[in-house]
Description:
Helix content of chain B: 40-55%
Strand content of chain A: 25-35%
Oligomer: heterotrimer
Number of strands of chain B: 8
CATH architecture of the largest domain in chain A: 3-Layer(aba) Sandwich
Amino acid sequence: MNEIFALVEHRQGAIRDITYELLSCGRKLAEKENTKLTAIILGHNTDDLVQILKSQAHRLLVVDNDVFKDFNSELYQITLNEIMKKHNPMLFLMGHSAFGMDLCPALATQLGVPFTTDCLDIEFMEQKLKVTRQIYDGKLNAKVQLRENPGYMITLRSGCFPAGEGSLDGSVERFDTPVSTQPDYRKFIEYIEAAVGEVDITKSDILVSVGRGIKDQANLSIIEDFASAIGGVVACSRPVVDAGWMAKDRQVGSSGKTVKPKLYIALGISGAFQHIVGMKGADTIIAVNKDPNAPIFSEADYGIVDDLFKVMPVLKTKISEVKLAKG
Amino acid sequence: MGGSIKINLEVRDAIIESGAGDVIKCYQCGRCMAACPWNLLEGLNYATYRFCQRIKLGAIIDSEEKEEIAADTIDVFRCVGCDSCKAECPRGVGLSDILRAVRRILVEFDSYPGELKSVVTRVFSSGNPLGESTEKRGDWAAGLNIPQYTEDCEYLYFPCCLPAYDARAKKISQATVRILKRADISFGIIGKEEFCCGEAVRRVGAEKVFQAAVKQNTELFKKAKVHKVIATSPHCLVTFTKEYPEYYDGFETLHAVQVFDRLIKDKTIVPKRPFEKTVVYHDPCTLGRQMDIYDEPRAVLKSIPGLKLIEVPIFNRDFSICCGGGAMGLWRDWPQDERLANLRTEQILATDADILCVACPYCLQMFEETLKSMDADIEVMDISEILEASLELR
Amino acid sequence: MDIIVCIKRVAQTAEAEVKIDSSGKDIIKDRLTFDMNESDTYALEEAILLKEKFGGTLTAVSLGTVEAEDTLRIALAKGADSAIRIKAEDFQELDGYKTAQLLKAAIKDLKFDVVFTGCIATDDYYSLVGVTLAELLGVPHATLVTKIVIQDTKAQVHRELEGGLVEHLEMTLPVLFTIQTGINEPRYASLIAIRRAAKKEIKVIGASEIDPANIQANASLEELFTPSVGKRAEILTGSMDEISAKVAGIIKEKGLL
């Protein structure tokens, strides 16, 4: 039985969370299919990565070279192409991330392996692979069967496969890269941190959105503080922009942006329909408003009827506690 | 525009064919420009008098520069359809009809402001501009004991989209049906099979969506044997009265305020509870200039004991200034200094009234939103809410 | 500079109710509007900006039924010089892989320096057509592009990564970019250009030009189903401490802490 492969995703020395989700998914499948999971690490000075991931896979296939310090899908493709030809895994898992999106379709096409992207669920049965994907702006799910083949490649959506503790003691195997310099046609130059004012609220998983309930521009710093404590970005409703307190690019609603974060915390937003149409697609909505009849509560999953300035300090403390407890 | 004018007869013909035949009547006297409320805003120069001439030459949205095309397109979609110009024009040209012809071509080519596109999409897909579920269209009447419309009803009450879905505007439809009920009017509601009347989508140039609205509503009215409609929105009233008959003329429409006026005149309802407030009435464009209904709302308000009715000086009745909500202006996001609502609100605040009385759900939304960012002591109420407050509790 | 932009006409479902039809494999479309896919509008604009800067030709390509010609005409009105439609009706069930192969077949004989696609189609959500097409064409690619500056044959490219980070790449033309929304401000069309576009001939190619037997799909649809939805609006009660603990628990449960 051929193995299952999963690609380790790392950036600036840190393993990306999606990696643990891929490996956990891969372990479960390997167990079910009675085969083994190999984690593939392309990186430079990979000892730390290897130590951290040893428990997560049966084998770690490591390519250590300074060209892999940063991600370059062209270099990954050349190297992985060699690895894949040698090992022919039954399934190769990658994250549906800026990294996997750039790499998977090209590599699979080069190898002639059937592939698909952005999978929420997978079923393997007698060599047949079926996956569940979201379509039509996430409003429907589609179950899709891949063209039958001894091997497949897919990318998994983050947050759909729970990460788990590993109890394996993976063997380490080294592989030499056939390339050692970046090609002229695609060179990684640098990472650039987004400047303040360039935050794209449509891309954030967590939005802390404020309405006229914040009363004064001076109160914004409290909100910013809270948002960064929970790893979110501050957005707002139209009156806040009108008052000149926040930039237009932070506005959610019919005349602002339509957002679909995983979590939307509406603070002091009454829920005028112009606002609701811009945020009702959020996965989870928590609303804080003094007015129990505020329309926002008919859109929210959870509501707190109180003054947002009373709620926030306590909530921030609780969230920090929960965060610490996890770490 | 730049220097020389590029004449393009093909563009001209396409616009005229799309419904701008009246351009030929314009002789550029400029009265439309003087009448247009946009030109009352400081710093804005909305050259309405040039539109007809430019269309006659096919020289409109004719630049090759991205920014100039955008500015010209925005201007074509600026007009809110208040018909102030039409009232002043010596030859009866309605610029909103002319611009609608241009808009139709642009909408067909998906070349129009994104915020409007979203609304058009929502109306077509959900039958209302909010994108709410059709299943919930009758929910506003929950608990009010309003009968479902049957052949035996005299009237269908048609609440319009905002009063069917929006939490604030629902209070208008709810007050209205409670008044109709206590007056023992024979009426019913339909709810989920109703579709947006389509007045605003048509003004914005989305003719296909308007046609879908007409089809859905007229088929519904035929099937349910509706012959008389009471509308809460004067926008529904205008399109039902002036536009639908081209496709189906088997029903007539009254605005709720006309019904209230009649019920008070024939003493079916008697406002007895004093409403000790100074009330300024704002004439909606669609009810006033477009349907000539000025006296009925004033008569209703005057019949209420204790209520002191005042007018916005000069800019009242046929000189009323638009709230800015027409032709989907409700969904636009103009910069602060380009908002008709601000201008009109300032005129209204200058009257020192306690209550701003409106008779259109768009006006209600526009003024309430505007007042939220002003530090003003005035409350916006629909005429149905004021009337209900003055009726004795049963 | 010769440029190709691939665009798709998609159902606008972001603000519409989406219902499954009786076959269980498609959606009910009679109450949906169809427009150019959102990120494709940005790809088109980026292509037009490049053409304005460097001159050359801009060809718009779309795989779709005859209605896709409306979408191609929009591209023509905004600045494309010519348009090609690949007849979707000639090719059975499509997936992203098959789409990429058909696009390749349609453009392989055209000269190009840059190929643009959107970064994701809002109907099928694959995000794979651009990269697959680049591989089939044998040119390098970059996905999720938010900035492009071209000088001679070198392109300085920004890609959008997770968490607000940007990756700066240097690439050599010819190249394929999949464009992220927000990279530019898509334009309106002038009326003159609209009239011109309305009359322009669109090249249509189908099974007689591309042999369907040589084009294979990777995935076939088994069924569509509606994801389960949770309940709405639970008002949290208790002391401020209790309420806050509940909220923190909810956020943690969603895996967001």
